[in-house]
Amino acid sequence: MRRLKPSLRMLAAGAVLSALSVVSCSNSYDLLLHDRFEQGGFNSDVDILWVVDNSSSMTDEQASLAANFTAFISAFANVGNESGETLEYGTIAEATVAWAEFQQNQDRFLNYNMGVITSDIQSPGNGNQGNIRSLGAIGGGTCSTAEILRPQDDDVAADFIDLVDVGVAGAGDETGILASAFALCKGQNGDFWANLENLPDDDPVRVICSLIPQSERATGDETPCNSDAEGNFFRDGAATAVIIVSDEGDGAASRNDMPPESWLTRCIDDNAQNPSFGPCDCRTQWFLDFFDGVGRQVVFFNITPSYQLKGDPIAWCDGGELDIPGPCNEFGSGTCSLDFYQQAACESLGSYVPIAENVGGVTQDDPPDCRDINFEEALGNIGAKISNLDQGWRLSLTPDIASISVFVDDEEVPNQSESPSGGWRYVPASNSIDFTGEAVPDFNATVDIYYLPAFGRDAQTGRGLPF
After folding, report:
1. Which range of residues forms the domain containing residue 342?
2. More confident call, 251 vs 37
3. Per-residue pLDDT tens for 118-149?
4. pLDDT single digits (tens) 390-431
5. 34 and 92 housed in the same domain
6. Which of 93, 237, 377, 409 has a C-alpha 20 to 30 A away from that of 437?
7. Alpha-carbon gap, residue 134 to 116, rounded angstroms
8. Is residue 466 included in any domain, yes or no?
9. Do 130 and 233 sit in the same domain of this protein?
10. Are strands 405-408 and 227-228 parallel, antiparallel or unpaired?
11. pTM for this one?
12. How many Å apart are CA 48 and CA 25, to the nearest integer?
């Protein structure tokens, strides 16, 4: 999509989704959706949390991840000029040129925090149980000072290679999504912990964060666990990208304590009339509700196994299909544990890449031939998508384009096709609204976007309505 000028970029204060009953002959679900944003100053803050499987089978995958990290970081960490030349800061004159380049082309400068945890939630210590690791050994003491990589660091690539070397001595019951949830819990301040028990008993934030030991919870003005000398890993107003790399499904999908039986029963009953919605969908919904509950935009980029057959596409959240070259699931993970990762990526508008591709067949006579994916290409694509997390006005669901109405400070904005001097346009690739010309909202303007979903909400999200 077209990049907006830095001074006119949008900082989403929160996409507020409301469902209002309307009469519609063209849409069988009859729901009007409302997304609200505020036009703020330039914000390119993205907190990138890597969750790396450290079980005994991950040696090759960890090596590929380290070897191809440059493809990932180069997709958004270009601090040179348009010609690709490196910016210099050795003299006042050079620094002035670099500052001018930054002011004019902020969309090329992503202000990231980057850290690494393992998928092991059974063993305590550095890197495990959601503790963003230091450069020390995995395990040992808890709540060590996190090693947080930032653009101004001397050698981000070398430090990442050290951090991603998490070893292969971790628990065999990998739980990447739950590990990332623990990391978010440990990044909360004292006020959060003081109010945790005010939430309902089966609320996912209360259930998950209650598992964090008291010694790893911030109190008063104390700095949260996942921090360093410069501050908390999870910054206010930053988008959060979680990248999970694992060769097995998420073991949290089979836990008996999550979600609580009362919540799971209620969810199944509420969706009893939907033949495509089952207990696994409820489990996924409960965990995704955790990330909503801590008030962060979390986007999942998962490199994990597949169970679908090659040539048998599955529905994806943008209304299209995803043809997964599988099955390539050597450990026989359950369908729900594998679908956990796919749904998290789908519903958060992230991406899913099978960790191994089937270049063979799917029959006994023509059996699957599974080979590791091209990590360089996969990481480059993820990096490119992360660079666009702060781009555009991303909609909650895929819209019926003909139904879209856009208002800025309560004044309706015309479609660009009807207003050459400036208007709004829908960008399918990012499921977002873009403004052009004189229609670009002023600073602190409120943008309201109303639309009908292109198809049923449950088909897009895998979730039923909460009422």
Report:
1. 45-389
2. 251
3. 999 999 999 999 999 998 889 877 777 899 99
4. 555 778 788 888 899 999 889 999 988 888 777 888 877 667
5. no
6. 237
7. 9
8. no
9. yes
10. unpaired
11. 0.74
12. 43
Confirm if 15 and 35 have CB atoms less than 8 A apart. yes
Helix (H, G, I), strand (E, B) or coil at 246: coil
How is residue 54 written in tokens? 């450290």
Would residue 161 count as lying in a domain? Answer: yes
How many domains is the chain built from? 2
Same domain? 410 vs 352 = no
Examine the domain organization and report whether 21 and 106 are in the same domain: no
Query: CA-to-CA distance for 389 and 159, rounded, in angstroms?
Result: 24
Report how far residue 463's alpha carbon sits from residue 467's, in angstroms, rounded to the nearest whole number: 12
d(CA 205, CA 136): 30
| DSSP-derived 3-state class of residue 120 | coil
Return phi, psi of residue 362, to 5°.
-140, 20
Q: Report yes or no: 248 and 55 within 8 Å, Cβ to Cβ.
A: yes
Asked if residue 154 and residue 195 are part of one domain, the reply reads yes
> How much is the CA Rg of the chain, to the nearest whole Å?
22
Which residue do the tokens 């910016």 mark? 87
Instruction: Give me the residue label for tokens 């949830």.
Output: 181
467 within domain boundaries: no
Same domain, 376 and 440: no
| Eight-class DSSP state of 66 | H
